[in-house]
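Model it.
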Amino acid sequence: MGAVTVSKTSPVREPAVSWKLFEETARTYEGWYATPLGKRADQAERALLAWLQGSFSNARDVLDIGCGTGHFTEWLAASGLRTRGLDRSSAMLAELRRRFRTRRLCMAMRTGFRCALRRSTWPCS
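Modeled.
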Protein backbone atom coordinates (compact mmCIF):
# COMPACT_ATOMS: atom_id res chain seq x y z
CA MET A 1 0.00 0.00 0.00
CA GLY A 2 1.23 3.48 -0.81
CA ALA A 3 0.92 6.75 1.04
CA VAL A 4 -2.27 8.76 1.16
CA THR A 5 -1.39 12.24 -0.03
CA VAL A 6 -2.96 15.45 -1.29
CA SER A 7 -2.06 16.14 -4.90
CA LYS A 8 0.56 18.85 -5.29
CA THR A 9 -1.43 20.25 -8.19
CA SER A 10 -4.44 20.85 -5.93
CA PRO A 11 -3.60 23.60 -3.47
CA VAL A 12 -4.84 23.04 0.08
CA ARG A 13 -6.50 26.17 1.36
CA GLU A 14 -6.78 27.03 5.02
CA PRO A 15 -10.42 27.00 6.12
CA ALA A 16 -12.08 30.19 7.31
CA VAL A 17 -11.81 28.99 10.91
CA SER A 18 -9.80 30.72 13.57
CA TRP A 19 -7.54 28.04 15.01
CA LYS A 20 -6.46 30.52 17.65
CA LEU A 21 -9.54 29.60 19.69
CA PHE A 22 -8.34 26.02 20.07
CA GLU A 23 -4.87 27.15 21.11
CA GLU A 24 -6.33 29.46 23.76
CA THR A 25 -8.92 27.08 25.24
CA ALA A 26 -7.03 23.79 25.33
CA ARG A 27 -6.59 23.76 29.13
CA THR A 28 -10.31 24.29 29.77
CA TYR A 29 -11.73 22.39 26.78
CA GLU A 30 -12.56 19.20 28.69
CA GLY A 31 -14.65 21.22 31.15
CA TRP A 32 -17.21 21.80 28.43
CA TYR A 33 -18.15 18.11 28.59
CA ALA A 34 -19.34 18.69 32.18
CA THR A 35 -21.93 21.26 31.05
CA PRO A 36 -25.50 20.16 30.23
CA LEU A 37 -24.93 20.68 26.50
CA GLY A 38 -21.52 19.02 26.68
CA LYS A 39 -22.98 15.98 28.45
CA ARG A 40 -25.63 15.62 25.74
CA ALA A 41 -23.05 15.96 22.97
CA ASP A 42 -20.76 13.45 24.70
CA GLN A 43 -23.58 10.92 25.02
CA ALA A 44 -24.62 11.35 21.38
CA GLU A 45 -21.05 11.13 20.07
CA ARG A 46 -20.23 8.03 22.15
CA ALA A 47 -23.41 6.38 20.86
CA LEU A 48 -22.36 7.17 17.29
CA LEU A 49 -18.84 5.85 17.90
CA ALA A 50 -20.22 2.66 19.48
CA TRP A 51 -22.49 2.16 16.46
CA LEU A 52 -19.53 2.69 14.12
CA GLN A 53 -17.47 0.21 16.12
CA GLY A 54 -20.25 -2.35 15.62
CA SER A 55 -20.24 -1.66 11.91
CA PHE A 56 -16.48 -2.28 11.74
CA SER A 57 -16.19 -5.10 14.25
CA ASN A 58 -12.90 -6.34 12.79
CA ALA A 59 -11.21 -2.96 13.16
CA ARG A 60 -8.32 -2.83 15.59
CA ASP A 61 -6.85 0.58 14.74
CA VAL A 62 -8.44 4.03 14.81
CA LEU A 63 -7.23 7.38 13.52
CA ASP A 64 -9.01 10.14 15.45
CA ILE A 65 -8.76 13.15 13.14
CA GLY A 66 -9.27 16.35 15.09
CA CYS A 67 -8.64 14.54 18.38
CA GLY A 68 -8.23 17.73 20.38
CA THR A 69 -7.55 16.90 24.03
CA GLY A 70 -8.16 13.20 23.42
CA HIS A 71 -11.64 12.97 24.92
CA PHE A 72 -12.77 10.32 22.45
CA THR A 73 -9.28 9.07 21.58
CA GLU A 74 -8.90 7.83 25.15
CA TRP A 75 -12.40 6.35 25.17
CA LEU A 76 -11.66 4.43 21.99
CA ALA A 77 -8.31 3.23 23.39
CA ALA A 78 -10.05 2.08 26.59
CA SER A 79 -12.33 -0.09 24.44
CA GLY A 80 -9.27 -2.00 23.24
CA LEU A 81 -8.55 -0.23 19.97
CA ARG A 82 -5.08 0.99 19.04
CA THR A 83 -5.56 4.71 18.59
CA ARG A 84 -3.70 7.54 16.94
CA GLY A 85 -4.78 11.13 17.48
CA LEU A 86 -4.21 13.75 14.82
CA ASP A 87 -4.79 17.44 15.47
CA ARG A 88 -3.62 20.75 14.11
CA SER A 89 -3.45 22.42 17.50
CA SER A 90 -0.21 21.92 19.39
CA ALA A 91 -1.91 23.19 22.57
CA MET A 92 -4.67 20.58 22.28
CA LEU A 93 -2.08 17.81 21.83
CA ALA A 94 -0.07 19.14 24.78
CA GLU A 95 -3.22 18.93 26.90
CA LEU A 96 -3.84 15.38 25.65
CA ARG A 97 -0.30 14.44 26.71
CA ARG A 98 -0.79 16.10 30.12
CA ARG A 99 -4.09 14.29 30.73
CA PHE A 100 -2.85 10.84 29.73
CA ARG A 101 0.77 10.69 30.87
CA THR A 102 0.48 7.06 31.91
CA ARG A 103 -1.38 5.84 28.82
CA ARG A 104 0.34 5.34 25.50
CA LEU A 105 -1.57 7.26 22.85
CA CYS A 106 0.06 8.18 19.57
CA MET A 107 -0.30 11.80 18.55
CA ALA A 108 0.71 13.95 15.62
CA MET A 109 0.37 17.57 14.63
CA ARG A 110 0.19 18.68 11.04
CA THR A 111 0.19 22.21 9.73
CA GLY A 112 -2.78 22.73 7.48
CA PHE A 113 -4.37 19.58 6.16
CA ARG A 114 -1.51 17.95 4.28
CA CYS A 115 -0.86 14.61 5.81
CA ALA A 116 0.69 11.41 4.54
CA LEU A 117 0.23 8.10 6.32
CA ARG A 118 2.58 5.37 5.26
CA ARG A 119 1.98 1.73 6.04
CA SER A 120 5.34 1.57 7.79
CA THR A 121 4.17 4.10 10.39
CA TRP A 122 0.79 2.54 11.13
CA PRO A 123 -0.20 1.17 13.57
CA CYS A 124 1.79 2.64 16.40
CA SER A 125 3.01 0.22 19.02
